[in-house]
Structure formats: structure tokens, C-alpha cells
Specification:
By secondary structure, the chain is an alpha/beta fold. The protein has 12 helices and 7 strands. The protein has 2 domains: about 60 residues; about 210 residues, Rossmann fold (3-Layer(aba) Sandwich).
């Protein structure tokens, strides 16, 4: 997915938000915004927003020395999600179609995103998504792919959302599932420690993709991840950032996400706030 003009003010908003959390004073905050503005001037519109997000957060780390601005927020998100886990587990257990319900719950977790300028109420939004119609629902092909797969690569997105991912992975418990996270902290995306805190190590092998961006950019990923990406029987991609980086790849995969911004919605040809389970390159 290319960068749209609407992404540019979003980069500035992200810099402002992270800067307020990490800058030691207003002078340093102004430096963050000034240098982000200069950085944006160099961006081509043909690369993905996730690539440029990596550059913005690299700049913030350099100026402030803070490696993980969202650390406390991520821990709180994981805590809140784990408190909901028993109730959500029962919903899956008692549903007519456990796999589809687990997909819904995994997508519901995608609202835990501090990279978009929106507020959310976790419990209320989860309940809403459990009854929301899908804008795109390629469930039959997804179910078929799950049944046939022996190895599944599940590319995670945000911390907290990772707990919701666990519920879906548990419905594929007879498969070998590899759960990929970011190499370093960026926004509130999950890194290895967040995945372990979410107890994903109980249901999957956790690996780093090598990504330092808020999304999966294949030419920036490590060799181990790329080998798994190319050979896994099924690839599941969660969230907007991973969609930005992987929407043009040639291999079969499935996107699970909620469209939380107009740019993503437009690229997917759906409406903002829609939810999707979308397969690409599926024969």
C-alpha cells in the first residue's frame, strides 16, 4: 500500500503524541516536531506508511533517548485484555461456530491501537464487534486453509490485542503456530516480552520478524522470519500496519483487521470502522 496525503498529518500527530510522553521539556518537544516535519519532506508517496512510521519513531528515540514510550500503556492494555479473557473464552466455547467467533474476537482486539487518533472503550467495542456484519468475509476459504495447514504464521500487531489473538490460536491448537512480533518497540505494537506477558508462549512459538516499523516490511525482516513467511502453509496478518506492508505481496495470506482510518478503508474499498477477514492470492 502506498502512502496517501492524509498520512502526512497522521505522522505529525503520532510525533506529537509520543513526544508529549517522552520529551523532557517543551523545547525538546518542539525539536521533535521540527525534525519530523523536515523528515516528512523527504518521504516519497510510493512507499508504505509503515516504513515512514519507523523513521518517525527512530527520530523520537534519538532525540529523547526513550526506547519504549508506550511501555506502561502496553502493560495496562494486556492487563485489561487478560481480565476479559475468561468471558471471551466462554463466548467462543458456547458459540455455534467457534472458529468464526474466535476470528471476530481477534479482530475486536484490533481496536487497541494508539497509532490512530481515536479513543476506544475495550469492553464496549468488543461487544459491538461480536455482532457487527463483516464488510469482507472470506471465512469458507479461511476455514479450508486452516483445516489443510500444518504450519501457520500469525503476524501479530498490538500489545493487548495479542491476548485476543491467543483465543483464535487456541482454536487451531492441532497446528504448529508461529507468532511474529516486532524487533523493537514502536507505538504500542507487541514485542517479544509483550507476547509472553499475553501468555502466547502457551499456544505458539514466538519469534521476532526483525521489523522495526509499525508493520511488516519484508525487505526489512530477518532471514528466519522470511523463511517461515515463504514456507508456512497459512499466513495470517493482523491489523492495519501489517496490511500496509503486505497488501501487495504475491503469496496467499489472510488479513484480519478493523478499518480505523479513512485511508485504510479507501484502499480496501470499504467504510471506516468496517471489519474484514480478507484473503488475497487464494486459488
Amino acid at each position: 500500500m502506498k502512502t496517501y496525503f492524509e498520512c502526512i498529518p497522521c505522522f505529525m500527530q503520532q510525533a506529537l503524541k509520543a513526544g508529549k510522553m517522552t520529551a523532557k521539556d517543551n523545547r525538546q518537544l518542539k525539536t521533535i516536531l521540527d525534525e519530523t516535519g523536515c523528515l516528512v519532506k523527504t518521504f516519497s508517496m510510493q512507499s508504505t506508511p509503515a516504513e515512514y512510521g519507523a523513521e518517525v519513531y527512530k527520530l523520537i528515540r534519538k532525540i529523547t533517548g526513550v526506547e519504549d514510550p508506550y511501555k506502561e500503556i502496553k502493560q495496562q492494555s494486556i492487563k485489561e485484555a487478560k481480565e476479559l479473557y475468561p468471558e471471551l473464552k466462554n463466548i467462543v466455547k458456547n458459540s455455534e461456530n467457534r472458529l468464526l467467533t474466535a476470528v471476530r474476537i481477534a479482530i475486536a482486539g484490533n481496536i487497541i491501537d494508539f497509532g490512530v487518533n481515536k479513543k476506544f472503550n475495550l469492553k464496549e467495542d468488543v461487544q459491538r464487534i461480536l455482532t457487527q456484519n463483516f464488510a469482507v468475509l472470506d471465512f469458507d476459504t479461511f476455514n479450508d486453509a486452516v483445516q489443510k495447514a500444518k504450519t501457520i504464521l500469525y503476524i501479530g500487531d498490538n500489545a493487548g490485542e495479542s491476548v485476543f489473538d491467543k483465543l483464535l490460536i487456541e482454536e487451531m491448537s492441532d497446528k504448529k503456530v508461529i507468532y511474529a512480533v516486532r524487533e523493537i518497540p514502536v507505538i504500542n505494537d507487541a514485542v517479544y516480552e509483550d507476547a509472553v506477558e499475553s501468555e502466547l508462549d502457551e499456544v505458539a512459538e514466538i519469534i521476532s520478524s526483525g521489523a522495526k516499523a509499525p508493520g511488516t516490511i519484508l525487505n526489512q525482516c530477518n532471514e528466519n522470519f522470511l523463511n517461515i513467511f515463504n514456507t508456512a502453509d497459512l499466513v495470517i496478518s493482523k491489523g492495519q500496519g501489517n496490511y500496509e506492508g503486505l497488501s501487495d505481496v504475491k503469496r496467499p495470506l489472510f488479513f484480519l483487521l478493523k478499518a480505523k482510518c479513512s485511508v485504510i478503508a479507501r484502499d480496501l474499498k470499504i467504510n471506516e470502522n468496517d471489519i474484514i477477514l480478507k484473503g488475497i492470492n487464494i486459488s
